[in-house]
Amino acid sequence: MTRVAAGQLAAGTDLAVNLAACLRMIDTAADAGAELVVLPEFCNHLSWYDDRAHARRMACTPGDAFLTAIAGRAARHRMYVKIGVTLARPDGRTTGTGLLFGPDGALLGESDKQILMGAENDYLDPGRTESPVIETPLGRIGMYACMEGVINEVTRSLAVRGAQLLLNSLNSFAVDEASLHVPVRAAENKVWVVAANKVGPLLPATQLPAIAARLGVPEDRLHGAGESQVVAPDGTPVAVAPASGEAIVVADIDVARADDKRRPDGTDIVAARRPEIYASLAATPSPRRARPGAESLATALVAPDAGTIKDLVADGVELLVLPELANISITEVVRALRGSTAYAVLTMREGAAHHGVLVGADGVVGRQPQLHRTNRHPWLIELGTELIVFELPWGRMAIVVGDDSLLPETFRLAAVQDADVVAVPCTPAEPWELRLGLPERAAENRLNVLAAGSGENGLVGAVYALSPDFTLWTTWSGPFTGVISHPIVTDAPPGALSVRATVRPAQAVNRNVSKGTDLVAGRPRTTHRGPEGS
């Protein structure tokens, strides 16, 4: 077992005070017996500056007093220390950089933040290369920072290149970091995550009241949200700090657990990837081009019952999603839709293929073959080669079939094709899939997601609808809650034949999680291949 720690602290504009806080956290972690400690992002200075020149003056430089002290403290305690700072590069760039120091104080690796958040774009330069996977006696370590965990590419790249332990340094006010964005990166990749967030004001104290008033939010909503944590490969937090106050959390972990990527049916959810069909994800990202869809759309998840389908359609539902391989024929569904403008999505086994089928009142509109293999369907041999987006009267829709829902790449394919809605007939097998995986697919891609499956009590699943209240950069309908991108979730109640929810296709156009940070067009380019091109 390896004992790891996450330390949360406040950092202001006084570098000496900030350094003292970092050293105090390292000492506390060492006293708790930790072999590795992760500290937050921007530990040297608040991520708020007068201009780029100011940011560069406040940045660390290799071998300066700040970093020498951190390295020395790592050596004193014979422990690994990961810290996030700004770094003044010799080539003139100023980067937000994660640094990993070893038990002898040596710098083992560095990771420049590739996706900058909001005002960081005004002061800093994004990283140009993928973060390294660092071999250590503790295991294979990858590093990332804050916004890099709000979308999937950076952590996915680290995992497919063999990382077992991901270290996340955050500087975030968002409450859904701890509830969603941090744990999902562990679960979807079946790795350990150690995440350290800030507490205290994230803006200069003298400017905080004016900025809060301008944004229309309480001042405390611009504080670090804390809840630093250690998360197991199934997405379960095993240690969590409070939402406020300096703190250290410690956990004993078995790093080797991250080598088992199997789902309950034995499917390896990383090996199941198909990089050959992800070419569009490696292309140069571009802004959305498609026009907005409808402002609202009445939808339902529905059990395979023709009478219930007919009743929902009569009551104005325009899109229905049935569970994977539901016990109902296409003919029965078409008959239930007769005389309406509604559409329904279900799946069918067709020989050695598994197809998502889009039907309307006049019959089959289109088919989407499943894209990835799964041990759950040994007969599934004929796979699709692309994700199709269907143009419908109310917007653009993709169908994600069965276990394709486990892979973040599938939904990214929908997002880069400007989908508004994704229908997901699936069979959830692990708690993280509905609790973390599908909400994150909606959040990181700005997609309305409707997931329907079957369980012991009948219909399972949820509708994940995009909210028009999106971070601080849009007008809110009510008080700002601290949520950065979590969708509105409507779960299927136990024993129900259906669950209704309104989704908002037009909200898929709004992808700017902050000024200058587009969740889709701002993603980093990767090859989507593993260490040997697999």
TrEMBL record:
In this chain, the stretch annotated as Disordered covers 511-534
Fetch the InterPro entries from UniProt.
Aliph_Amidase/BUP, C-N_Hydrolase
Q: Which UniProt keywords apply?
A: Hydrolase
Organism's domain of life? Bacteria
What GO molecular function annotations does the UniProt record carry, in alphabetical order?
Answer: hydrolase activity
Domain CN hydrolase residues, every copy: 2-255
- Where in the sequence is the signal peptide annotated? none
Xref: CDD domains: nitrilase
Q: What is this protein called?
A: Carbon-nitrogen hydrolase
